[in-house]
Amino acid sequence: MLSVKGLCAGYGALTILKGINLEIGRGEVVGLVGANGAGKTTLVRTLAGLLPARAGEICLGGEDITRIPPHRRSGFGLAVVLENRNLFGELTVRENLVLAERAGRGRSPVFSLDRIADLFPAVGEKLNVRCDLLSGGQQQQVAIGRALLQQPDIVVMDEPSTGLAPKVVKDILDVLGRLRADGMSIILVEQNIAIASSATSRAYVMATGSVAHEIPEGHWPCFMADEKLVSAYLGHHQGAAHQ
């Protein structure tokens, strides 16, 4: 599905990503975890095409998309939910979603406005409301809905739980479970290890721009129980996340 090999990227003279290797299969929900400054958001921006790769390759469904412009990557099956959500605040929820729906044309429709409203009832109730008048949780749901309307094969979500109330986070995780059951591939980028471990089957742990550790399927409990390992890669504050 998605294969990343030897990916390097950075800003100006500074190289952030130092040879990232990832493999995400069809229907997998895979975590990407690490402390602040580990390079997670830089990787997301490079996958999205917002930051050019300096070396390496990104392949999706057997197609090399490394040099494909950001606006064309949805046509190859990739959708990205950025941490800042990147909504058009002056437009209504419906207008934001319709724009995304148009971007997904040319791919077999799986998601519709009605299905987004079913996944996120709060979004369905706010279709005629400007996005800049929504709560943070509602904006995050619109951002995810917009990504899904691009009819992706894989969705990358950058820190979707940041700043949200526990109830909203639970609702989003429930939706991720439904998408996973439908065979959607998802990369969940999270600093919160408790959320990542509950929502993903396996994970890559990033540190200083590299994949420093891999958590195989079924091995989340072992990783969570090793406080030295958790503290080394995620910071001391994460060590009690499983308690």
What does this structure look like?
With 243 residues, this protein is an alpha/beta fold. It has a single domain (2-238), classed as Rossmann fold, CATH 3.40.50. The chain is 33% helix and 25% strand. The chain contains nine helices and ten strands. The strands form two sheets. The protein has a six-stranded mixed β-sheet with strand order 6-7-8-3-9-10, with helices on both faces. The chain has a four-stranded antiparallel β-sheet with strand order 2-1-4-5, covered by helices on one side. The protein is globular. The N and C termini lie far apart (35 Å). Residues 237-243 have low confidence and may be disordered.
Q: How many strands in all?
A: 10
The CATH C-level class name: Alpha Beta
Cα(first) to Cα(last) distance is 35 Å
From the 3D coordinates, which CATH architecture would you assign? 3-Layer(aba) Sandwich
What is the mean pLDDT? 91
Tally of DSSP helical segments:
9
So what's the overall shape? globular
| Structural domain tally | 1
* Cα Rg: 17 Å
Structural class: alpha/beta
The portion of residues assigned to helices is 25-40%
Query: Would you give the CATH topology?
Result: Rossmann fold
At a glance:
The protein is 33% helix and 25% strand. It is an alpha/beta fold and 243 residues long.
Keywords for this entry:
disordered C terminus, 4-stranded antiparallel β-sheet, alpha/beta, 243 residues, Rossmann fold, globular, 6-stranded mixed β-sheet, single chain
